């Protein structure tokens, strides 16, 4: 049996988001869907998985709300259910950035996936990865800057310290596009004039381009039991320990918390308070 995994977000005023939770959860449960949906006053953000029929039906239901009538989503596929349960959560933000009063409508300019390779190949374009450290260690675009953040709330502080010229052309990207809606708006609020971001994120890029020019290097980290996908959006068979870079088994992935993609040996060492060897760290730096 094949499962469809749908990822989506939509910034829109959902002033009654508290009241929406029960109806959405009930509908998802009736359809046999699993995954996580976040609701906040600023909108909706989710990744869900189920049969083709169930995915079609849930989007019919969501789009029946006039505020979500233009809701779009990205799809990938797996031969197993990558989520264990269905969760609908109420949040202050649908992506946790921690900057009050940020006008997301002032975001950067979209670059369509089809034009991304040519755009970031231009010598005057600075490419910035907005994702977290463990995501970047698994894969990134060639020559992209890694801000070395542990969570998205760390990004504003990094951006404030970024030494790039405010007249430079800045191209930013994330997994599905949602983090760039806020990070590019924030960069513009700091005075950067020419800010762009990859429309639909890495997932849209891989779906439409299949990494034909080899600009993407490695595995795209995702927040479900697949852990990462390859350039064809299939569950990656090459997920490596973020410390020693050895292949990580399915059993090992199931034994660690989200984001901590480590083998059993490195996990044991970390639990004993030991750090990766100097040679391991050198190899990690060379790949990032």
Concise summary:
The chain is of the alpha/beta class. It contains ten helices and 13 strands.
Write the SSE topology.
Layout: E1 3-11, H1 17-30, E2 34-40, E3 43-50, H2 52-63, E4 74-78, E5 86-90, E6 109-111, H3 113-120, E7 125-129, H4 133-138, E8 139-141, H5 155-161, E9 169-173, H6 178-189, E10 194-198, H7 201-209, E11 216-218, E12 220-221, E13 228-229, H8 250-254, H9 264-271, H10 278-287
Parallel strand pairs: 2-5, 6-10, 7-9, 9-10
Antiparallel strand pairs: 1-3, 1-4, 2-3, 8-11, 12-13
Name some characteristics of this structure.
288 residues; alpha/beta; Alpha-Beta Plaits; Oxidized Rhodanese, domain 1; 10 helices; 13 strands; disordered C terminus
Characterization of this structure:
This protein is α/β, with parallel strands linked by helices and 288 residues long. It folds into three domains: 3-90, Alpha-Beta Plaits, CATH 3.30.70.100; 104-209, Rhodanese-like domain (Oxidized Rhodanese, domain 1), CATH 3.40.250.10; 240-287, no CATH class. Helix content is 32%, strand content 22%. The longest helix has 14 residues, at 17-30. It is globular and about 50 Å long. The two termini are 37 Å apart. Mean pLDDT is 90; it is low at 278-288.
